[in-house]
Amino acid sequence: MPTPTRNPSTAAASTTRDSLAAHPLYRAVSSLPRLRTFTEHHVACVWDFMSLLKSLQRDLAGTGVPWCPPADPEAARMINEIVLDEESDRLSYRDGHASHFTWYVEAMAELGADTGPIGRFVASVGAGAPPLAAMAQAGLPAAAVEFTTTTLAFLAEPLPIRAAVFLHGRENLIPKMFMPLLDSLQQQGLPCERFRGYLARHIEVDGGAHGEFAGALLARLCERQPGLHAACDAA
């Protein structure tokens, strides 16, 4: 029997994920001031994650009015399951439900991090301002603006490419990044209960059902268009 070979682009993605899992940043977050700085940058990634996810829901489940039935009800179900948790999960630290973005911002407040820039940004976007201009005007860090610029550029790509970015750049990657960060915070005993809960919840869902749904979605989309696997693996 021939020895199986790996797609070079898939191997490269796996290598990149492994290098990110071993990044020295996680150990560098060794004090409350450093954790505050981390969250003040990373919160932009939490926001643009939702923009990427909602773009998939828009195309797979249909969120417009008048409503039309989804072309692939199974895909619609999977993306809606992910959105349900990400947009309205039960919180571990207080009664009620909220988005994971809200959970993150409230964790920042518990840490004493500056939530002013992200608050101003969300208010501006809600009023109709272009996201990138709103980020700069709100005072979010330049590195956060740069990251979000890349994410938002993917929103113009075809659905399978966005699904690949969602799987390989987020759902398959997040547990690998969050586990060493959570371990480091627990070992140091930093007082950040809400933030640790946020990390643990994402390790649970992204390493479980959400990751499985994201993988199944990408596979379904690639089955419709032969030849897309290589492009999506490289996205």
* SSE string, helices as H and strands as E: HHHHEEHHHHHHHHH
Radius of gyration: 18 Å
Helix content percent band: over 70%
Oligomer: single chain
Highlighted features:
235 residues; mainly alpha; two-stranded antiparallel ribbon; 2 strands; 2% strand; disordered N terminus; disordered C terminus
How is this structure best described in words?
The chain is an all-alpha fold and 235 residues long. Helix content is 73%, strand content 2%. A two-stranded antiparallel sheet has the order 1-2. The longest helix has 29 residues, at 32-60. The two termini are 31 Å apart. Residues 1-6 and 229-233 have low confidence and may be disordered.
Topology:
Blueprint: H1 8-21, H2 25-28, H3 32-60, H4 73-88, E1 89-90, E2 97-98, H5 100-111, H6 116-126, H7 131-138, H8 142-154, H9 159-171, H10 174-188, H11 193-206, H12 209-224, H13 228-234
Antiparallel strand pairs: 1-2
Helix pairs in contact: 1-10, 3-4, 3-5, 3-8, 3-9, 4-12, 5-11, 6-7, 9-12, 9-13, 10-11
How would you summarize what this structure contains?
By secondary structure, the chain is mostly helical. It is built from 13 helices and two strands, in the order H-H-H-H-E-E-H-H-H-H-H-H-H-H-H. The model is unreliable at 1-6 and 229-233 (pLDDT under 50).
